[in-house]
Design a protein that fits this description.
alpha/beta, Pyruvate Kinase, Chain: A, domain 1, 6 helices, 7 strands, 35% helix
């Protein structure tokens, strides 16, 4: 039998307060596994900026996945235009795509004419409630990045998500495209909130 001992970190509470530590743990595990890419969720750009500052000089590629235009208000993109311009200038990929684990399904379940849940939303809710909100976000960001061609489906990546704002969940994922969702593998949980 062979095994590798690795550290997993547990935050006492979820949320933004864990962002800097999540960045540190993400880089630590990427370097340990010789992974080249960190994918981080960021809706406003604040978390993206923290991760950009942390990865600077490490040789690790940062990919930021944002909410779609209209996620909160029709026609509006929540991500800071100034942060986006700076990150793009520095070579960071910013990916904006429809939420793979809700998207159109959410419109149907919220509709008074159709109503009801969907299998896709059941998967999302299971990830949120059984493991962590940030795990659902990290998985979704990997699906979006793969679907947009920002990453391949063969190489492991570090994926980072959070609860409401900031980052609090770090994992190692072998990507897949949304159409091949069950090929995606969460291979390691590096950090997560212990209480959700």
């Amino acid at each position: 039998m062979t095994f590798t001992a690795r550290t997993t970190y547990y935050f006492d509470n979820p949320g933004k307060i864990n962002t800097s530590d999540s960045a540190r743990f993400a880089i630590e595990r990427a370097q340990e596994l010789k992974l080249k890419t960190i994918i981080v969720a960021s809706s406003s750009g604040e978390t993206a900026q923290v991760f950009f500052n942390a990865v600077k000089g490490t040789g690790i590629q940062l990919i930021v996945v944002t909410h779609v235009v209209g996620f909160t208000k029709p026609g509006e993109w929540e991500f800071s235009q100034e942060i986006a311009a700076h990150l793009i200038k520095e070579g960071v990929k910013i990916v904006t795509g429809t939420h793979a684990l809700s998207g159109l399904e959410r419109a149907l379940s919220r509709s008074s004419k159709v109503g009801g849940g969907s299998r896709t939303e059941a998967i999302a809710e299971a990830l949120r409630r059984i493991v962590a909100v940030g795990l659902k976000v990290a998985v979704e960001c990997v699906l979006i990045a793969a679907d947009q061609g920002a990453i391949g489906a063969e190489d492991e990546v570090i994926a980072v998500g959070g609860t409401a704002s900031g980052a609090d969940t770090v994992c190692v994922i072998r990507p897949a495209h949304t159409a091949n969702f069950f090929d995606l593998q969460v291979r390691e949980i590096v950090a997560m909130p212990r209480v959700r």
